[in-house]
Amino acid sequence: MQNSEVKIIHNKEVAPGYFLLGLSWTPKRVRPGQFVMLRVSDGLDPLLRRPFGIYRVMPGQRGVELLYQVVGKGTRILAAKRPGESLGVLGPLGNGFPKPGKGKKIIMAAGGMGIVPLYPLINELKDGLLLFGARGKAGTKVIKDFKKLKCRIRIATEDGSAGQAGLVTDLLREEVTPDAVVYACGPPGMLKAVSVIAEQADAPCWVSLERSMACGIGVCLGCAVKTRTHEEEAENRLYKMVCSDGPVFSSGDMDWDAI
Ligand SMILES: Cc1cc2nc3c(=O)[nH]c(=O)nc-3n(C[C@H](O)[C@H](O)[C@H](O)COP(=O)(O)OP(=O)(O)OC[C@H]3O[C@@H](n4cnc5c(N)ncnc54)[C@H](O)[C@@H]3O)c2cc1C
Ligand code: FES
To answer: Hey, which of 1, 36, 220, 245 would you mutate to test ligand 2's pocket, going by the most ligand atoms within 8 Å of its Cβ?
Structure first.
């Protein structure tokens, strides 16, 4: 893990409100599903770094790219940054996704910006079926780059303006089989539903969780999630840190009623 001051190579709006940020930062090794904590301001506001998944390593190892959506103050400040400016980067952080095992049907389910950690996973595995859910057609623009990867893609939109009308979990119900392994990232409600569907199909399922984070390295305990891994143990042992124990967890280990 490095704590570096790095230059911005580009910060392009790739769809309204969605930005691709290129950083001249080349960590030795990045596993799919790992993330960074970005310091977006030199001042005290916002004080805390913001977590972002590592989207891809740029050709020729020139740096890495992050894909982010503007949702609040920190991402608004980030969107105004220009090439040549510097940012504080802490990472790579977290555990990343485990490998699927031989002969498995690989299914990835993403909702909204949950798509980000799945890009490096598909890129590494060169295989898989991507199920992507968005509210409407505008939200599907973020998967344009996935069409160049070796994966089949199915889309569901809530308003039916692109792909199948409905939820990404409807697609998962149609596709999941006991020989599948499911990787998922998205809002908590979606992940809970994915977890139930995978469990009913007897398929292993890995979920990448998002939590507000302050330190990103397991110190502040701000990103604790409740698990059901060690039910016989003391209550405080039931909690895991999304930043340092995760962000990827086996869905069967999570206490979904507490997430
Ligand atoms: C491990 C991890 C990886 C992430 N990867 C990405 C990524 O690749 N691309 C990306 O666009 N975003 C990603 N996020 C979410 C991103 O960190 C937040 O969107 C960002 O911190 C918001 O900062 P802000 O100051 O703009 O918004 P704030 O002003 O802090 O919040 C604005 C609104 O966004 C909501 N919000 C803040 N953080 C989150 C969150 N983590 N999940 C859901 N809602 C949130 C708040 O509740 C509030 O409603 C990731 C989060 C985690 C924990
Ligand atoms: S963000 Fe501090 S412990 Fe996870």
So the answer is: 220
Whether residue 119 contacts residue 113, with contact meaning beta carbons closer than 8 Å, is answered with: no
Question: How many angstroms separate the CA atoms of 78 and 58, rounded?
Answer: 20
Q: Which of 10, 37, 14, 36 is nearest to 24 (CA)?
A: 10
Task: Domain 2-93: give its CATH code.
Answer: 2.40.30.10
CATH topology of domain 105-258: Rossmann fold (3.40.50)
pLDDT in tens, 218-227: 999 999 999 9
Among residues 169, 170, 172, 193, the alpha carbon closest in space to that of 256 is found at 193
Predicted model pTM: 0.94
Residues with CB under 6 A from ligand 1: 35, 46, 50-53, 66-69, 71-75, 113, 116, 210-213, 247
